[in-house]
Design brief:
This protein is mainly beta and 452 residues long. The longest helix is centred in the first third of the chain and has 23 residues.
């Protein structure tokens, strides 16, 4: 029916694809689940590979919309948070790991309370908490009510689910609107037994890419090059997920406490810097090869990253560490124009007329439009903070910063990007507690996991 020479990736008809693959009775959703679960099956030069690649390219947005259409309706409103006290976290090297934290959530799949955030507002169940510092009548700044910005926000990439991989354990926390917040584990027969310390991961839509970390080798610690694709396959009958772990291409250079960013419109992932490193590289997740690009001007351990105007990669703040484990917390930004990568990185500074302390690491990033993002939480070398700032990059060379509200309690976000699920944004902090940002009502909330 098809001749390879006649295939045009931009004009493939979905029904012809289904007929060709003899999958007429299988939904588009199931095809994508199969594609995501077995990506290597299609990495070849065959006609089937070209058809599937085109299918994904052409219909990936519809896939996530299809999944979102099946989501059950949820509950409303926020309630109260317990305060974290992180004032004793005085590690100037930001050598943060979960051994130093008081993790009070003793969880398993049998005792999770599956209440979850609503797209329009947050659940009013006791598991959903407002902070004492919150003003529930807080409205978005007027410039965010502009119709252009609303359209930009509505057109953003949305995630099917978000994943949190807890380092030095085999625990996986999962959030979506269908099942709420659940937890599973790596299977012991996997090559990957637990998530390495100081590793980073980035959510990709319905999977996550685990990158680098640190391992002990006799009398010294070695930076890891290995990467893994963590894919979750839904089991609707048990309302759980099966975990599939696939080796991904190794980094060109081992990294720990580095920075990651997913560019959904290009399927690229950037890995930048880390402790003692300025080097950067990126990969197309469907090609599986890391390419080295220009180095940053400064090393930026545990910095945060953002994607601006679908053209610029930002690396924000971070800890600039010396070989003697001494260093400074950075208050500037470096950006890369992905349309002209040979130009290298450019350093810019905030327009900060009110003297906010922006010398921070491990910030949460909420990308509310193409040129505007929120930064929340972070570490200043002495304590975790709870401030929230709006950064406007409409003038690329002079981004403005404005404090908007309190996060409610001090925390940090090692894996910094808040992921959008329909109209709200979600992320996990260092203690694997889930935070949500309700864009329309301009407020943060948390989801506490409690026994039923």
């Amino acid at each position: 029916m098809f001749e390879e020479s006649n295939i045009n990736n931009d004009e493939i008809n979905i029904f012809e694809i289904l007929e060709y693959l003899k999958w007429e009775k299988i939904s588009l959703l199931k095809i994508f689940e199969f594609l995501i679960k077995y990506p290597k099956f299609f990495i070849n030069s065959s006609l089937e590979s070209k058809i599937i690649s085109a299918l994904y390219k052409k219909f990936s947005d519809k896939y996530f919309l299809l999944k979102n259409e099946k989501i059950m309706s949820e509950n409303d409103d926020l309630s109260k948070n317990n305060n974290h006290n992180n004032n004793n976290n005085n590690n100037n090297n930001l050598n943060i790991n979960n051994n130093n934290l008081n993790n009070n959530n003793n969880l398993n799949n049998n005792n999770l309370n599956n209440n979850y955030f609503n797209n329009n507002n947050f659940n009013n169940n006791n598991n959903f908490n407002n902070n004492n510092n919150f003003n529930n009548n807080n409205l978005p700044p007027q410039n965010l009510l502009d119709e252009k910005l609303k359209k930009e926000n509505q057109s953003q990439f949305t995630y099917e689910l978000i994943i949190c991989l807890k380092e030095k354990t085999n625990d996986i926390f999962i959030y979506n609107e269908k099942y709420g917040l659940t937890k599973t584990k790596l299977e012991q027969n996997n090559e990957l037994k637990e998530f390495p310390p100081k590793s980073k991961f980035v959510n990709l839509g319905s999977s996550a890419l685990l990158v680098g970390g640190e391992k002990q080798e006799r009398n010294f610690k070695e930076k890891i090059k290995k990467c893994y694709l963590i894919t979750l396959i839904e089991n609707e009958s048990s309302k759980t997920y099966e975990v599939n772990v696939s080796p991904f291409a190794d980094l060109n250079e081992g990294r720990e406490r580095h920075n990651l960013l997913f560019l959904p419109d290009k399927n690229w992932v950037f890995a930048c810097s880390g402790f003692y490193l300025t080097s950067c590289e990126y990969t197309n997740i469907y090609e599986g090869k890391w390419q080295t690009i220009s180095s940053l001007k400064k090393s930026r351990g545990n910095a945060s990253m953002a994607y601006i105007n679908e053209q610029y990669v930002f690396v924000i703040g971070g800890f600039n560490v010396s070989q003697k484990n001494e260093g400074i917390y950075l208050n500037d930004i470096e950006y890369l124009d992905i349309k002209n990568m040979n130009k290298g990185w450019t350093t810019i500074n905030y327009v900060n007329n009110k003297g906010y302390n922006m010398a921070l690491t491990a910030l949460g990033i909420v990308p509310i439009s193409k040129n505007i993002f929120l930064i929340c939480g972070g570490y200043d070398g002495k304590k975790y903070i709870n401030n929230v700032y709006k950064v406007d990059c409409t003038n690329l060379e002079n981004p403005t910063v404005e404090e908007t509200q309190s996060l409610g309690k001090p925390t940090i976000f090692i894996h910094n990007l808040f992921c959008k699920i329909r109209k709200s944004y979600f992320n996990f902090d260092i203690q694997c507690e889930m935070y949500g940002f309700d864009y329309e009502n301009w407020r943060f909330g948390t989801l506490n996991l409690e026994s039923k």
